[in-house]
Design brief:
This protein is α/β, with parallel strands linked by helices. It is built from 14 helices and nine strands. An eight-stranded parallel barrel has the order 1-2-3-4-5-6-7-8, surrounded by five helices. The longest helix is centred in the N-terminal third of the chain and has 19 residues. It binds iron/sulfur cluster. Iron/sulfur cluster binds next to loops.
C-alpha cells in the first residue's frame, strides 16, 4: 500500500509526544534524512526559534549537498475545458462564466517560444480534464513540437492518460511527469471530488503515477494542495511516504507545496495557510528528504518566496494560468479568466536578478535527483 492512513495517524501520535527535537535537527543536519516518526515530530514541534534554526539548517544542507542552484518553471495551459467539478478550481465544469479555450498545436508551440523568451526553460503542459480520446492527440503533438522545435523541457501533467499515451509521450521526448494527489486524506479526497467523474478515485490517481514510471518517466512530480484541509501534518507525511515509495522505484522526485488561492468561481473556502506554516512545511520536507527536489509556485507572495528560495530547487515564474495567456488569448488572461491568482508577479528576469543577489544561480535544468541506494 503506497499510503497507509492508519500508519500515518500512528506516526502523528508518536511524533507529537517525542522529546527529541534537538537530536532530530542534528540528524537532519547530517543529510541522511529522517524517519516518518521523526518527520512527524519535527513538523509538530517546530515553532519560533526552532523554526528559524530548521530553515537555516535546511538552507545549509541544500547548499552543501546540491549547490546554490535553481531552475525556473511555468505552466503552459493547453485547455481550460474540464469535465470535472473540483470546488477549489476556477476551471470547474460548472463555472459557466468562463470562456472555454483549447489551443491548437501551433498555438502551443507559440506559447512555448514565449516562455523561453521570458527566460524560463521548463514548462508544465497542463489543462482541464477531457475524455482522453478528445485531447490525447493534441497533448502528444504539442509535446512533440516543443521537444523538436524549442529548447523547452515539457513536464506532463494530465490525470487521465492511458499507459499507451504515456508511452507515446515518452517516445516523443517527454521525461517528466507530474500529478498532485491534492490531499492524501482519502475521505476528504472523496468528498472534494464527488462531482469529478475523471478524478474521483483516490487509488487510481496514485496508480497513475506508477503507470508513468512504468512508461519510462524517471522524473516524477507530486504535491498536495495545502489549504484543502486543516491537518497539515497528515499531508506532509503523505508526501513523505509517497516520495519514499517513488524513490524506491528508482526515480527522481519533485515535491510541490502549493496553497489554495482565490479563483473565479471557487465554491469552497480555504483553510488559510499562514506564512510560518508553509515555511515549516518546506523546511520539514527539505530536512526529512534531502534528495528530493522542492518546487515553489508563484501563487505565494514575493516576501514568502524570498524567504524560502534558499531551500527550493524549482521556482515557478512567468505564469499566466490560462490557455494562450502569453500569445493567442491575452485578452482572456487580462480580464481574469484564470485557474487561480498568482501573488508573486515579478517577471522571470526580476526573479533571476533577485536570486543572483542571494548567491543562487539559475540553471536551465536542475536534476530531480534519484535516491542513491
Ligand atoms: S482541478 Fe483540474 S480536474 Fe479539477 S476542475 Fe480544475 S482543471 Fe478540472
Amino acid at each position: 500500500m503506497i499510503i497507509n492512513e492508519e500508519f500515518i495517524v500512528n506516526e502523528i501520535k508518536t511524533g507529537k509526544n517525542s522529546s527529541h527535537l534537538n537530536d532530530i535537527l542534528k540528524k537532519a543536519e547530517n543529510g541522511h534524512g529522517l524517519t516518518g516518526t521523526e518527520t512527524s515530530a519535527l513538523f509538530q514541534q517546530l515553532d519560533g526559534k526552532s523554526l528559524k534554526d530548521a530553515l537555516r539548517i535546511a538552507a545549509e544542507l541544500k547548499s552543501r549537498t546540491k549547490g546554490n542552484f535553481a531552475s525556473l518553471y511555468t505552466c503552459l495551459y493547453i485547455t481550460n475545458s474540464c469535465v470535472n467539478d473540483c470546488g477549489y478550481c476556477g476551471y470547474r465544469g460548472s463555472n459557466k462564466d468562463l470562456e472555454r479555450i483549447t489551443l491548437t498545436p501551433l498555438q502551443i508551440e507559440d506559447e512555448a517560444r514565449a516562455i523561453l523568451e521570458m527566460g524560463v526553460t521548463n514548462a508544465i503542459l497542463i489543462g482541464g480534464t477531457m475524455p482522453e480520446e478528445l485531447y490525447k492527440g493534441l497533448i502528444v503533438e504539442g509535446t512533440r513540437r516543443i521537444v523538436k522545435g524549442t529548447a523547452l523541457s515539457p513536464w506532463i501533467e494530465f490525470e487521465n492518460l492511458s499507459p499507451q499515451t504515456l508511452r507515446h509521450l515518452y517516445e516523443v521526448g517527454a521525461r517528466h511527469f507530474v500529478l498532485f494527489q491534492e490531499t492524501y486524506n482519502r475521505a476528504k479526497y472523496r468528498r472534494l471530488h464527488s462531482n469529478s467523474p475523471l478524478k474521483g478515485d483516490y487509488d487510481a490517481r496514485l496508480r497513475k503515477v506508477d503507470e508513468a514510471v512504468d512508461s519510462g518517466f524517471r522524473n516524477i512530480g507530486i504535491g498536495a494542495l495545502f489549504g484543502l484541509q486543516e491537518n497539515h501534518v497528515f499531508e506532509v507525511l503523505g508526501l513523505y511516504h509517497h516520495a519514499w515509495y517513488l524513490m524506491g522505484r528508482g526515480v527522481g522526485v519533485c515535491i510541490s507545496i502549493p496553497t489554495l488561492k482565490p479563483a473565479p468561481g471557487l465554491s469552497i473556502s480555504s483553510h488559510g495557510i499562514e506564512d510560518e506554516e508553509l515555511i515549516k512545511i518546506a523546511a520539514t520536507l527539505r530536512l526529512a528528504l534531502p534528495d528530493v527536489s522542492l518546487a515553489l509556485s508563484a501563487r505565494e507572495t514575493t516576501e514568502l518566496r524570498n524567504r524560502l528560495f534558499p531551500i527550493i530547487d524549482q521556482i515557478g515564474s512567468g505564469g499566466t494560468p490560462n490557455p494562450g495567456g502569453r500569445t493567442s488569448h491575452k485578452a482572456q488572461y487580462r480580464r481574469g479568466d484564470t485557474q487561480f491568482r498568482l501573488s508573486d508577479t515579478r517577471s522571470p528576469r526580476e526573479v533571476i536578478e533577485h536570486l543572483a543577489t542571494r548567491g543562487i544561480e539559475v540553471k536551465r535544468f536542475v536534476k530531480w535527483q534519484p535516491q542513491l541506494f
